[in-house]
Every structure is written in C-alpha cells, then in structure tokens.
Amino acid sequence: MACTERNVYSTSIATNSYETALCIIPPVEHCHNVDRLRLLYDKGYGKWPPHINLIYPFVAPENLPRAKERIEARLAAELDTSSVNINLDESACFAHRSNSTICLRESDSLEASSLHGLRSKVLGALDQRPTASKFHLTVGQSVDKTLSSVQFLLSKAKLIPRLDFEVLLLAILIREPIPGNEKSESRMRLWGQIQLSGESPATLSEFWLGEESVVNARDDDLDHPNGEISVKNSAISHFNLGIQPGTTYKYEPDIMQWVSCLCSPNDEAKSALLNVTSYNVLVDSEYPPARDRDSLLQNTILSGPASSDILLLQEVSDDFLSYLLTQPEVQRRYPFASHGPPSQSDIWPLPSLRNIVVLSKWPFSWEFVPFRRRHKGAVVARFDGVAKSHSGESVSLVVAGIHLTCGLTDGSVASKKVQLHTLQSYLKWKYPISPWIVAGDFNITTSTYTIETALKNKLITQQTAKTLSTMEMIIKEAGMLDAWAVARVEAADLTTGDTRFDFEDLFEGEDGATFDPRNNKLAAATSGTSNNRPQRYDRILVKPQGLLRINQFNNFGLPESHDGVQVVPSDHLGIRASMKLLSCTENDSAATEDTVQKYNVHSKQASQALCEFSALTSALAAHGMLPTDEESRGRKEVFSLVKEVLLGSSSDKESAISDIPMVIVPVGSYAIGTWTSTSDIDCLCIGSISPKTFFKLARQRIHRAQTQGIRLLRKVEANTGTMFELSVNGVSIDLQYCAATRIVEKWSEFHNLHHSDPVFNLPILSLRKLKPYRDIIYIQRTLPSAFVFRLAYRCIKLWALRRGIYSSKFGYVGGIHLTLMLSIIHKRLAHDGGSVTAVDLITTFFHYYANFDWKNDILYDPFFHQKTPRYYRSAREPMVILGFHAPNANIAHTMTVPGLKTLVKEFELADQHLSQEGMTWEKFLNGNTVSDIVDSQVFSPSDFLTSQDSFVKIKLQYWSPSLGKGRGLLGWVESRCLLLVLDIHKALSGIEVRIWPARFTDAKATDAETDYHGCYLIGLSKDEGSDLFATKDDRLAARQTLDRCFERFLDQLHAVDNYDPNTCWMGISLVRPSEVRNLRIDDREWGDYVLDIEPDSDDEDAADDLSNDNEEISVPRKLPERLAPPKSAPVSSNKLRPASDILNRLRWDPSLNPSDYIVGYEDRFLGAKETTLKKWRTEQTDDEFIPQHRILYFKRRNDGVVVWERRTRIDLVFGSGASAGNRGD
C-alpha cells in the first residue's frame, strides 16, 4: 500500500496549460472595490475575478481532479496551524511592448511571503520543482507607454487602501468560450476550490460573471453609435455590473476624518428653500495633477453666488477632491459627500480621471448608474425627509449628477441620447412619484450656428442634427423643466452680463451659455469646435411633482482680470437653482400656477420642409428683413452721435450720463433688436429738468451739430407730450423726454427695481413715458433667446405686411402687438420645453392665435401678471392685450370688430398653409408661381384690388406748396378712416369690411407733379351665407345706407382746421374693382420734404447759441426791379437790412396792410415759390415753417413792385443796401 502511494506521487503533473489556473481570490468586499477600478482599466474584467495567481499556467483540464487530490493531501499533511495572510500594501507596474500593467503586491521580500511557501508546497504535490513568482493583483493596464498614462494609473493604485486578508481557500479556474460571442473570446469559470482552513468549508461564487443591469435589458432602448457596445453583447460587456450602490461619507470633527455613514431621514431640513449647484471644475492634466487652480476653485465654490444645500461637481480628480475635502469651511458647509478624500488612508480612490461628486449639508444615500460608454454614468442621490407631500407624508428627493459624452460627432451625439434615455428610464422605473433634479454638464451642443456649420462641413449627418432635437424632446416628455428657462421667463434669472441692449446678435441656442470660448481662455483651449461659439452645456432640470417650484437661477465663476491678465477658475461657469419646497410653504398660493396653466401653449412642430434654418433666413434676407453688418454699425454710430450731441458725452455705453442729470436710452424695435433698414430709432431721454427746458437745450445742441449730419425735422405736440423728429445721417429718430428726477438718481439700480418700488410713484404722464422702456427691459430680461425671438418676429412682421394687416392706426396689429403676442408664446414654450426653435415658434404662434378666444379672453403675460388682471373691457374692445407696467391699458384699443375678423381669418389661413405638406418659407412669404399662391396665402396690394366685390374710395387732392401741411392732412384723414370702417360695419352687418393700411395713387403719377392725387381703399365683400343683397330693394337700401355713411364721414373731415378748400379737396365714392385695378401703393415719403430748422436772422435773441456764419442762398432768377416813392426818410446804410426786419415792418407798421404783400422764397425741391405774407410762419415748431434765409424777395400784390430783394440788394422799405437814399411805399 505504501509502495502504491509512493508511485502515484512520483508521477509529476505538468503545469503548462493556460486553460486552467490556481489562484487566490480576495474576500468579496475587497473584490467589489477592486472591480470598480478593473471595470475601467483592466482588459481582463468580466473574464477573470480579482485574483493573485499562485500557479499559472496550471495543469491540463483533464488532470484537474488528480491535481486537486494531490494538493489537498499535501496541504493537509504539511500546512502548519498558522494561517496564510496576505498584505497588499504596495503598488507597482511592469512594462509590456505597448503599455504597462499596474498591480498591487506585498512589500515584504519574496522569501518572507507566506505565498512563497504555499506555492512551493503546491508545486511539490505536483512533483514540480519550486520556482520564484511575482505575486500580484492586477488593477489595470495603462493606455500606452507614455509616462503620463502609466503614472496616472499608478498614482491611483497607490491610493488604494491596504488589502489585508487571510487566505481560506484556493480557487481552481478553467477557461471556457463565452456563449454567443462572435470574437471567440473566453472567460475563466470556477472549476473547484481547495480548502486551507480546518474550519467549515468556505463557499465561493462566480460573481465576476455578473448580470445585465435592469435599465439596460431592453434592446430597443439603446442605439448603436460608434464607440458604444452593442446591446447584443451586453451580457459580456465591461458594464454588466448594473447599478452600483455607493458609500456616503460624513465628516466627523471629533476625529477629524471622513467616515462612512448610513443615510437616515433628515430631521433638520426645515427650510422652505432648496439650493442646488452644479459646477464643472475641469481636469486639464492627466499626470502630474495641476494644482494652480485649486484655491481659486475652492474660493469660487464657497462664494456667495455658489452657496447651496446640494453641490454637484463634475471632472473631479483624486487630487482635487483630497484638497477640497480637507478645507475646514467645506467640511462645515458640506459634511456629507458621495466620495471621501482619496488621500485618507482608508478611502478608495475615485474610479476615473473625471468623476462626479455630490456634496451636501444633508445625509443621503446614492448609487451609480453606469452608461454603456467607459467612464460614463450618473450619480443618483436620494435625500429622505427633505420634501413632504401635501398630505404630510415624507417623499424622497432624487438628485442625479451627470457628465455626458463630449463632442459633436455622429457617435458622440448618439451616445448622449442613449445616456440621457438610460437615466430617464432608470429614474422613471425606480422613483416614479418622487421629485427629480438632474444637473451637470450635458455637453449637448445648443448653438444652431455650430450645428449648421458642422452640417455644412459634413462633420455630422442630418440624422445627428435631428438627434440633438430629439434629446430636447426626451427632457420635455419626461416632465422635466429647465431651471434656467423657467427662471428666465419669470424674470428670476440672475445670470450676470447686461444684455439689455446687446446689439451683437447671439445665435439660436447661445443665450444663457455656460461655456464661452470667446470670453474664457480655458474654454478656448478646450473647445472642440473651430467656430468657438457659446454653448449652454450645463443645466439643472427639475421634475417638480407638485413639490418643487423654481424660484431663482444664477451663475458664478466668471472670468476676472487681475493686472491685465484673465483669471478664471474653470472653462465652464457654475450654475445654481433656488427652489421652493412647496410642502414647507404655508398658504402657498396656487393662483400663479393656475394663471400659467391657463396659457397652456402646445408646441406645434414645423414640417420637415420648414425646419431648414437657412431657408428661413434666406427668405427674410430677400425681403430686406435682416439688417446687414454695415447697417448695424451705422445704427450704432447714429445712436452714439445722438447721445453725444444731446448729452455732451461720447460714451459708448448704451445709456450715457451728461453733466445735467440725464440719461438717454433706445426704446421700440431698435432696443429689442427687431428693427429693419426702414425702421426709425425711438429714443427716450430721462432727466431732472423740465420738458420745456430740455427741448430748448436739445434744439440748441442739434443746431450746433448740423455739420455732423444731425437735423431737426419737426416738433410734434401730442396728448402724451412733445416729440422731436430728427434725421441723423439718413436715419429717422423720434426723441421724447420724461422728467423723473428720482429715476435718474437711482439709475445705477433702476433695472433691478421691482415694479412696485416707491420710486415709480410718478405723475401719470411720466409713467406713460417710462412705460415703453420699462416694458422693453422686462421683455429683454425674460426672453429665452433673443435671436429666436427676433427671427420669428421678422418673419411674422413680413407676413403681416404682405397680408395688409400690419398697422395699428388702421385697426390691425403693430410692432408692440406682435412683440407681446410673440413673447408670450416664446416664454410659455420655453417654460415647458426648455428650448424652442424659431420655426417651431412661428408655427405655434399662428396655430395658437388662430384658435384663441378673443371674444371672451384677454391676452396678458401670465409670468408677469401672476394673477388674472382686473380689467373690465368695454363693448368697443373686441381685442384686449395688456402690457406690463403701469399705467396698464389695452394696447389693442384701436382694434375694430372687422379688423379682428380679418386678423383671425389670416391667422387661420397661415396655420393651414404652414401645415401643408411641402410648404416652404419661400412659398409662404413670397410665392414664385401662381400655383404657390394657395387660397391667396401670398397676398399683396394687387391681390387685394382683385379680391373684393367693391371698394370705398376715399379720394384726396392736395396742391399747397407746404408739404408739412400736406403731411398733417394725410395723417388726419388716416386717423378718421377707422371711423368709416366702423360706421359701415355697424350699418351693414352682413358685409366684410377690410381696409388696406396704405395710400394708393395712380400708376402713372410721379413726385414731380405739382398737385398730389391719392386715395385710400376699403374693400367690401359679402359674408358667406349672407342674404343681405338678395333683392333689388335690399341692394338699394344698402346703397342708401352707404351714402349716409359717406356724408357723415365727409362732414367730419370738412369740419376741422386741417381741411382748407383753397389747398385740398376730398371725396368719397363706391367703385368697382375694375376702376381701381391700375392703382399702386403710394411710396412718396412726405417726411423727407419737411424743411430743416436752420438759424436765420429771426433768431437774433438766441444768437449766443446759434451760428452766425450761414451763407445766404442766392437764386439764379431775374426778378423785375420796380421802384416806388418813399414814405419816410431813408436810413442811409450800405448794409442790406435782413429779411426779418422787412417782415416785421410789413406786419406791424399800422400804415401797411400785410395782406397786400407776397413773399418769394426758395423751396429746396421745387425752386422759387410764392405765398402771401399773411400765411408766412415764423414759429420754428410750426409744420409750415420756412427758414427766413430762404426768403428771396417781398413784393406788393396789386402792382407787383418788388420792395425788397436779397440778390439785387433792393430795399424800398427802409432804404438800406443798394437803395440807400430811396424807399418805396
């Protein structure tokens, strides 16, 4: 028997098979920690467990039973009672051809290692000679052989706490092919185990084989982008651990260490506010770690604007987290953390180079949701006890921190979509009723300019561009609100940067940018695109579930300049959202929510043919709706010149301050950026002096600046006060003034004052003057995207112009109407969806207002009016649109019932045509062929002239030389046209009444004609289904009713001072379409004919303020020289008396009759003209004022004798000039 046993052991078993291995597997708790690193760095992860090879290669598979029996027998006989302990306390690396392996090992010498003795006994049992071996536990492999790559992973391994454990068993592993693997890869399975201890047998499971994550189980949930691991291979992927529970750390000041803790319900969270901050701190060096920004980042995180209850950091490295968590103030503010400082001996290093870390003032539990791309996942933290439902039950608050794949490529964009969908699916599955907050660096390209450029350069496909939009829909469909967008539309966005009058257009998607390579040197260095446009990469998304309400939003970490050098903590700005915990707020009013929900605007997606951004801009540019860069620069220069002249300053700021307490700001279309080349600039000056003093001062300064191209055209007196019309280098300027001393005194803080501030306790006239500017500030501050708004506005304005419904004075909509209507839609869409494109905004605009109940509802901004405004509409207000600040009035007060009917009809037509398949912007706005004009969608004056059954023609003829008076007459007639429209509508209810908001003239008429002929047209058409004209008697009665309307209208026109039968004629008649088909729009600009207010001899009282070197104009015209006997002794002088002296003498000398004299003057456009002395105006603000240096002569009416002439120096009134010694009667 003894001989038999000896023969068995004398037969050696070869250890040369790589199909098996004899190894030591650490305890499971150590394995899980090691596997978090191996998952990312070790190519053997998922195939091998964490292990220390005792013998590898081992015996052939067929020899395993025999080898196991021998080893067990030998160890049972020779192993002493002392246990085998391993102490992995040192990291090391060994090089390969293309990379290096980083591992853990014992620091003791080989001879001192218990593993060496164990290996010798095992080899002896197999009748093999003992050999040396480098026992190690592999952590991973470096990417390449570069020093930074090797040292990075080695430094991470050095942070691993010492692994000290007792070896209880040896594992025998055998290789097998991976089922279903197309690459014929293999893995190691547990074949058996050898017990070392005499205690009860230990069990070992094949934990390293893993199972798929529950959120990654569905094949149809994921795409297969470049760089992503296919779902089909998910069972063998590197990411099959599924959801990984995390350990929360708490700082214990008594022992001055971070220790692991269990989450318990938060009993201290009694605050009604919750602040959540997200910040990408930027890792800019793999190895060695850069530490020059650490203190700057710390100060930024602890700054006031960054102060929060929950802080989510991205791109956190081991080195920076170790630095941050050792700072006393950080330990005090944020005693709980998802990861402890890796520099602490008992805490494991962070898994990646760039990590997500959560810090909080409250305890929490968390888990890591891995994505399918290496190093990517979400940290999902659960806060118990922070929020309570309205029933008083505790509800968990879920906060997820993410850092999606960067880059704008087909693969990276597809990865982002998968990652976002994975997180959403997990949250929806795990926390269906809890409120969510998802924050971090989304890395989603938002700038349409960047996307369009990438498409043009074929860097991405159209499908990728569509995927970017799809991600926004994923966010919206999940019920998550974008905190920035919500705060923006609710005027709670405190992001820095004064964009009130930023004339440099940001492109769509660039508002609220957190990554701006143009203004951040770190961002410029890390930007992945060549155009360096701003991107809103960082976001805070909120799913309120009725328990959270976004209250405020701000950013922090802005670049600063120190000694001319830019200092910036990171390439990203940090963002913070402040939210109200509604369950903690007593008597929280639901009125605001109800008001907002009342304006529940459903986004209408534009068709594929309309989604092309370049097609829209090309169509607008073709109609001159997009100002050129040269025009923009010209407007800036004009506005700067006006400020310089009026305020005596040359500041480039948008509002300048002069020595006299005054500021001047733009309002209207120029302020909001929706102007076109034909728009004027509305300016408002706010000061402490009286309006009379201001306009006198302004007139003097304008006169001095005439050489710079600034001219005063006219002075307008209205119920709202005085206004100057200026012309500055060809650009029209409307200048108004508001006397408000307290406003000027508080100007530095004016834009942040609440609308209820006592500073606005001003007279009603001052409030009316300030209202446009205050409303513009609010709109500017709350628009989610100025670029999107401006583009959509210009498109809608062009449409309204072509359809003949853009004119508030004719009872339609004007600029302020469209601004408010569009801003409400824009803000509502952004509030719910976070972002909106210009094309979707346009289509939604038409769809919403085509179905709006104008009869019963009033239109207002629900984000400004947090409760339904108290407004009692009268029967004469078919449409009510309320502005913002006091005095609050209906801005649509000129809208008429027929005008509203026309407007709604046009909205419905536009909505229908934009919904048609194949509709393009060129067809919608232009219409190149007849087939393009579906149902007269592309409308024009010529279409109007042929689309009505008959027309009311208001004819006007004017032949006076005073073009200023003619302009006033036209304005008066236009203001009366609405009365006629209303009169006809009331008299004939079955008639559609539509006025075209422009003046027509004969197609052959020219500006050179002496007499002016023009007309206004009101189209009349029978309502569908109306039987108003069924009989001849009905038609006769209708005609008689119309005639009475016409008579009343003419009586109104003739009964005012504007009507002078000696200079004009007006008539009205009913005409057929054939009688007006040759008419065209009158493009004559009457404002160009208003005369300059230039200094002359009548202004001698103000000579100190005016120039005296003006040369008098001579006219090449030979006038008859007729002498008359003198009436008094002449004044002997060689100098010719000025025209003002002659004028005053002829007017005020009791012996002379002013009616007997005629004034000859030079018209700048028509040449020499004459008028009676009685009609001559000397008041400069009069519409018919003519500068007196243009006077050529005076003559008597009865005999034509010239009594004074400038050119020949004749003066028969005083006997001056060439008539010295003579005077005429």
TrEMBL record:
Domain annotation Endonuclease/exonuclease/phosphatase: ranges: 278-572
Keyword ATP-binding on entry: yes
Chief subcellular location: nucleus
Region (Disordered), start-end ranges: 512-534, 1092-1135
Compartments where located: Nucleus
Skewed-composition ranges (Acidic residues): 1092-1112
Higher taxonomy: Eukaryota, Fungi, Dikarya, Ascomycota, Pezizomycotina
Ranges for domain Polymerase nucleotidyl transferase: 664-700
Gene Ontology biological-process annotations: mRNA processing; RNA 3'-end processing
GO molecular function: ATP binding; poly(A) RNA polymerase activity; RNA binding
Source species of the chain: Lojkania enalia
Keywords associated with the record: ATP-binding, mRNA processing, Nucleotide-binding, Nucleus, Transferase
Enzyme Commission number(s) from the entry: 2.7.7.19
Name under which the protein is recorded: polynucleotide adenylyltransferase
